[in-house]
Amino acid sequence: MAASPTPPGKPRQPSISQLRAFVAVAEQLHFRDAAAAIGMSQPALSGAVAALEEALGVQLLERTTRKVLLSPAGERLAVRARTVLEAVGELLEEAEAARAPFTGVLRLGVIPTVAPYLLPTVLQLVHQRYPRLDLQVHEEQTASLLEGLAHGRLDLLLLAVPLGAPGVVEMPLFDEDFVLVTPRDHWLGGRDDIPREALKELDLLLLDEGHCLRDQALDVCREAGRTEGTPVTTSAAGLSTLVQLVAGGLGVTLLPRTALRVETARNDHLATGDFADPAPARRIALAMRAGAARTEEFEAFAEALREALRPLPVRVARTTS
Length: 321
Fold this sequence. Notes:
alpha/beta, Arc Repressor Mutant, subunit A, D-Maltodextrin-Binding Protein, domain 2, eight-stranded mixed beta sheet, two-stranded antiparallel ribbon, 10 helices, rod-shaped, WH_DNA-bd_sf, DNA binding, DNA-binding transcription factor activity
């Protein structure tokens, strides 16, 4: 006997189990076979299909004592029901992927004075160790990166610390010394015992406002006793341009040691000098939102990155675990 559909009106929301039962019957055209196919008892399956018909207000099946047929409406809605179940399956697969570490999208923000020198190591690590990770890199200045992290546009940052930003957890990677870059014939070029006090009166070239490396270099100069009134020529938006200005004799600059090979190796008009211990330095870290859902994954990534960075001229940070 056919189920009595509800009077015309707004259909009620069907359940996933009701849709599964209906699709099984639509495929098997037999209640016993359909119940066996989805591991449901025959009475429960029959009840689920009847409940679906009542919820939708549509007769889906024509039932006889010998066979089951789809009604015209049932044929159309069976197609829709399969689509819904496929979408639910994809949803569950996506959720499973989200639970698995180092899969899906990772949006990494990097400051410009780190990106060219560390990204080769980062990308090689991801390629070799985390092939299912979809790494997306965004190069921006620190303020923009922190805004992106706070609003969920970015997941993880690679930048200089300390940040002093509330709600941000820093995972130190390494410390690296600053190196003085000078014209080839400069009196400090080639030395390995430069006192910080030498920075007091030098013609110093720095990056534009907004770069954290500019602020770090100015901090070093203040520690060396350089007064606020001592002129600083700011003429470069990037380290490559800054180094070219030094090669042209316009002054000297400070470079992080990881940038030295890339920026100075092929320029015969430059010299470099190391500071006496303790040399001025900066710390590079990964940063994430406090309480991030992927905290354990990001901590494991930081530890793997520390190991990958050991061949570089840096002092890798010790883990706190």
